Amino acid sequence: MFGRGPKKSDNTRYYEILGVPKTASQDDLKRAYRKAAIKNHPDKGGDPEKFKELAQAYEVLSDPEKRDIYDQYGEDALKEGMGGGGGHDPFDIFQSFFGGNPFGGGSSRGRRQKKGEDVIHPLKVSLEDLYSGTSKKLSLSRNVICSKCKGKGSKSGASMTCAGCQGSGMKVSIRQLGPGMIQQMQHPCNECKGTGETINEKDRCPQCKGEKVVQEKKVLEVHVEKGMQNGQRITFPGEADEAPDCITGDIVFVLQQKEHPKFKRKGDDLFVEHTLTLTEALCGFQVVLTHLDDRQLLIKTNPGEVIKPDQFKGINDEGMPIYQRPFMRGKLYIHFTVDFPDSLSLEQCKALEGTLPSKPSAQLTEMELDECEETTLHDVNIEEEMRRKQQAAQEAYDEDEEAHGGAQRVQCAQQ
């Protein structure tokens, strides 16, 4: 964050809020905050806004680096990100200062705990799994609160406020870029790894080595229900990494459906492609289709029924089970393509002409035929032809552009 130093008149308000002079020592600040914070705490009927201002002022002035920024550049520099003035919860600051509720009993507000991050895992499933349902057992590693020290990190349960960051867990680096120009970078404290506290080497818990958590392996059984969709989430609440003073996040499995070689799914419906010979399309057919649950479905046409190219047929209740209503199913659609023969013999043509509906009756006379010009049909790959024509047109356009450009250059040279 970059910014110009604000006016000097902005660097006294925090001292006035705490009622201390600018020369106040850290002990003076602590005494002033302790007295004013207890008096103005909302649980004792104090003014919430005043309580918030006290915490904001103490947070800045108790940190030597932030105090130095405030004394030099004032409150605006902190608001622009140069130390995060007022960035922390005033109740958390009060709690860390007193180490508990000084009024006894539970606070009417309660201590807010941040929620840990959710852990997302993709879970590949087949279309058969989503059709019939399945269960998958997965082994995962996660952090859990150390059972020996109960998440304290020390044998005695004691810890000290980190001297490097004054318990905030963050440190601020400042660079002077020029007159009135400064740059601030905030990063986790490397002394306490962002925890805000340190533990004596000799007092560290032998089981977790002061880390407060240990790793454990856990097997989760994921139930994939009939009719679930690609991308659907299955959540295991509170099964992610544990951490002290933190609500444990969730483990979330996201279903990823693998491509099926035969069936395609669209919502609750299934689609399958089937190719017929011309004889089957005209004279009827029957074929056995193996479904996703290995049932054998007999697919056949009625006598005299003709299947046309690109035609669809549907079968009710043979699609996907509907999620949480598994006894109801969508439709199964069959898309037919017809494989025509490459050529026919003269005998086959005569036999078909005698069987199939007759040709259109309008016939050309010999005279009309004599007036026509003969043509020759040849096979084409239309996609390849269009691509070649487009490429030729582009090349012609490029040549035209070069010719015009050359003419303009000649004109410029003549001028």
UniProtKB/TrEMBL annotation:
Pfam families given in the database record: DnaJ, DnaJ_C, DnaJ_CXXCXGXG
Zinc finger residue ranges, CR-type: 133-217
SUPFAM superfamilies recorded: Chaperone J-domain (SSF46565), DnaJ/Hsp40 cysteine-rich domain (SSF57938), HSP40/DnaJ peptide-binding domain (SSF49493)
Signal peptide (UniProt feature, chain positions): none
Keyword Glycosyltransferase part of the UniProt annotation: no
Domain J span(s) in chain numbering: 13-74
Origin superkingdom: Eukaryota
Positions of region (Disordered): 383-415
One Gene Ontology cellular component: endoplasmic reticulum
Domain CR-type: 133-217
Keywords: Metal-binding, Repeat, Zinc, Zinc-finger
GO biological process: protein folding; response to heat
GO MF terms held by the record: ATP binding; Hsp70 protein binding; mRNA binding; unfolded protein binding; zinc ion binding
Protein name in the entry: Uncharacterized protein
Organism: Colocasia esculenta
